[in-house]
């Protein structure tokens, strides 16, 4: 299933952390906005007019028979199809299956393909399969609902050969006990084809969401991924051909020019000891042979525009996921289902000018050569296929380039996909950051230290500056000195943009000189992804400190412009520089339109509410929250964030009612309990708040600030022993250590106070507050001058 991507649900209080606790499907991080308050382009006429130039792959095949034949055998051609005997691969011969948690029966009723399973209301029902979805190594099935939604069934057919374990039904979420009403249930919003998958599995798509009626009228010009998904609308090209291929027609009428006609090529330069080919010719354009063309569907990214047409700049239509925890290991290895672009964007090959079509046949999708031959197009076999390089038996698995440079991860149970960063194995770094490495994945009985020693013996110790993974890992763990390491990485233009942007995204919220230098030094960076990340890093600053974003409101790249508008959302119009005042409304409209792409999602309304609230539009924000809860009455970010909004505008009773509703709907989630407790503290009900804080700390022991808040509440009631015990649960939490040291100091237990202060200072030797506290405690503990002689 193809995926859309996130932006976090912003919130003015502790609810900002809520997005991480929602436990949504890993593929689904999303952008958000309210349709009622955003002018979404009129779907039917405007979109249909744009789609008028599509001619269909069959038309292309009339002149391009070989390419058409290659395409027909590709995964693109089989991305989606109407359910027919020719397309359905699964066994529907009244086959019943169960995995202990889930059960289903697959049967035929004349020309209909049916699945008997738990339906929209929770009761077992027969649902009709209307389309197939993919083919190899698995096939999924779609069900058309009365409101135009197409939902993806959780049962997939393993289409691999039987000898490989295939030719069977299996459940895609075997560990989840899902019931109707859960977003992850096959009838829920997170399994909705129209929003999540359609744009990358069909051609000329018009999603056709009707916000007023909350239904879809999704249309396409071709049910699968056809020629025009990559080459753009073909009408002008067909007209050119029918007119006798007359000269003077720009690019022969093609909307997207993919063929490289520069005359350049990959060549081995005489005397180059590296044995690696270099591009000889004019610089390659990003659209040539498909990086920009492939990226929208081969990246985890959130769309910035509705139903984008092919040929547009990637960052004008999408915001790609950075190297987020849980999706990528800190060294950039793929972890979650992130597809190929994010790893390829990290690679040396991408920076050297390699494009997708250098390795892949663009029409069949197959590799241009088998085995190592695809690599030796540019890497001399005499050097890189030699035992001195790979150190494994010739012809064996260890001698294959991909074994060491393209580790694979299996998704959706059977779909094994390779990392495209083409990185050099570093088991020493993997050991430090807690990531897997290719050496010990294959040599399962050995340690990463053994692997690192072996590599050093063969190729010498690692050279060069510290590996960027160490900075990314330090930033994720909020380690001492992380700000400086991240700043160095962000400012180093020798590293790829996605790494540098990730470093900016991990900068700590607390200002420091390193943070300021990193953000200030990248706002005007040549890489638009870096500029956009620098703008997001401004969000933690007061409005008056965000004015540097104003000069980017007219940036050439849409992603940068909308991030500039987001950064400036709380800045009053008259505080903007004169030159930026005309640009802001245009960028703001683009921002709202980008959020409007997800108008069917409750998250959309939460995000737009935060934006409108920052602009002082309280009525609009309130309407947005109402719209979110109309989509999902129990949607946790909407309940918690609206509670913060209501309290901020002087409605504490309304805020408390919303939080109690959230606690009732999500009794096992600590976040709404914590938010309710903080509200009770502010309302002077300390006793109630203390009980709630204790409950939150029990439910989420991995969030030390819950126990910290509980300890402060206990202390305010004179229960200092209990407060110190609560703080002791998190011996590596800086605020807990500082608080414990202060409490122990105040009651004269100076040895215990000194131990806590020293532990806090050990976390970050530059921590001035911890150092001052330790100095005060040790001075109190020291005997007065001359006391020893008396």
UniProtKB/TrEMBL annotation:
It comes from the Bacteria. The keyword Signal applies. InterPro entries: Cyt_c-552/4 (IPR023155), Multihaem_cyt_sf (IPR036280), Multiheme_Cytochr_ET (IPR051829), Paired_CXXCH_1 (IPR010177), TPR-like_helical_dom_sf (IPR011990), TPR_rpt (IPR019734). SUPFAM superfamilies: Multiheme cytochromes (SSF48695), TPR-like (SSF48452). The keyword Lipid metabolism does not apply. Residues 194-232 form the Cytochrome c-552/4 domain. Keywords: Signal. Pfam families: Cytochrome_C554 (PF13435), Paired_CXXCH_1 (PF09699), TPR_19 (PF14559). SMART domains: TPR. Residues 356-379 form the Doubled CXXCH motif domain. This is Cytochrome c3 family protein. It comes from Sediminicoccus rosea.
